[in-house]
Amino acid sequence: GQANRLQAQFSSAALAARSRLLVPAHFQVKAVAKSETEMEYEVTPPPDALHGERVEFALEADGVRLGRARLQLLRPVSVRLPDAVSLHFGPEASLPSAPALIADNGEARVVIRNNDAAIRNYTLEARCEGLDLLPSRTEIAVGASAEREVTLRALGGSGVHPCTLILGGVSTRFHMALIKRGETLAYSVDLDADGHDEWIIENQKLRAVFSARDGGRWLEFVSKESGWNALPVAGALKGAGAVEVTSSSGREAFLQISGKGWRRTVKLGGGDSWIMVEQDSPLPAEVLASGPSGSLMLGVARTAPNRAAYVLDRLAESQFADVMERLKAQLVRP
């Protein structure tokens, strides 16, 4: 919605008088003659124009296009959270969570980008429900087409907290998930802005994300140290239909996923690098296999049709073998 000025210079006054600027639909243009051969166009994009969109402008005279340019639309100022959790689609592809989710250590870096051609002064306000964010108000100057970073620190208890950044009268929503050392957090939040919450269980080593649809499909299994997702694009443990999910957090957390005629429990301890999955009916077919992946070791143990353990850690082969043996022993309990 902000006006922008474009300048054009013509070879003659007659050509300038016959020219016009062609713009996309819903853009407003006001032409002002600066001299006989110079024109300035004040262009106002529609309020619902997309940040980052590219649009084409052209100069025309007598039905002939004299020149054109493909320009990118940018907000006067933009805010991003570079530490936001990404939702992974297989081992390689990912998209930032929307609204952004900041997990783990209670710090959030906020990058402010001034897209204007002049230095601008801004006031950044930050607030969270159930947390104190420091600083709660920051006055900052940002150079032309430059970025500056502000670090926010959260004080408060474990859990997921809805938060808001306010800059230039525009609000940006995000969530902060605080996880204390040795504890595990289980919660729900909409990671991809599709109107459906995903269910997350995580400690300071691992993050596992499950859908409340597709029979509680397992969407990702991520090592936080490397950011690598061990699951394929289609995920794992896929079924059919919507499910109900309950959760509990603490030294050991769990998700209880209930479908039509079955119930699955996913457990993760505060210091563990593995998750345990148990179902009161046979689990869906396994899609993962044990083995190395870069510097990580992925382990899969199924000693019964309804029980499984999944390890994802940076371990030597001997350590990995010991962990797998202990997990297999747990899985064969009565």
Domains counted in the coordinates: how many? Answer: 3
Segments where pLDDT lies below 50 for 5+ residues? none
Rg for CA atoms: 27 Å
The total of beta strands comes to 29
Main beta sheet: strand number and arrangement?
A: 7 strands, antiparallel
Mean model confidence by pLDDT:
92
Tally of contiguous helical segments: 2
Shape: elongated
SS-based class: mainly beta
The percent range for helix content is under 10%
Describe the structure.
There is one protein chain. The chain is mainly beta. The protein has three domains: 69 residues, Immunoglobulin-like (Sandwich); 104 residues, Immunoglobulins (Immunoglobulin-like, Sandwich); 153 residues, no CATH class. The chain has two helices and 29 strands. The chain has a seven-stranded antiparallel β-sheet, covered by helices on one side. The longest helix has 15 residues. The chain is elongated, with a radius of gyration of 27 Å. The termini are far apart.
List the helices and strands and how they pair.
Layout: E1 4-9, H1 13-18, E2 19-22, E3 28-35, E4 38-44, E5 54-61, E6 64-72, E7 77-80, E8 86-89, E9 93-96, E10 100-104, E11 107-114, E12 120-128, E13 132-134, E14 137-142, E15 146-155, E16 159-167, E17 170-178, E18 185-189, E19 198-202, E20 206-211, E21 218-223, E22 228-229, E23 244-248, E24 252-259, E25 262-269, E26 274-279, E27 291-293, E28 296-304, E29 307-313, H2 317-331
Parallel strand pairs: 10-17
Antiparallel strand pairs: 1-4, 2-5, 3-4, 5-6, 7-11, 8-9, 11-15, 12-14, 12-16, 13-15, 16-17, 18-19, 19-20, 20-21, 21-22, 23-24, 24-25, 25-26, 26-29, 27-28, 28-29
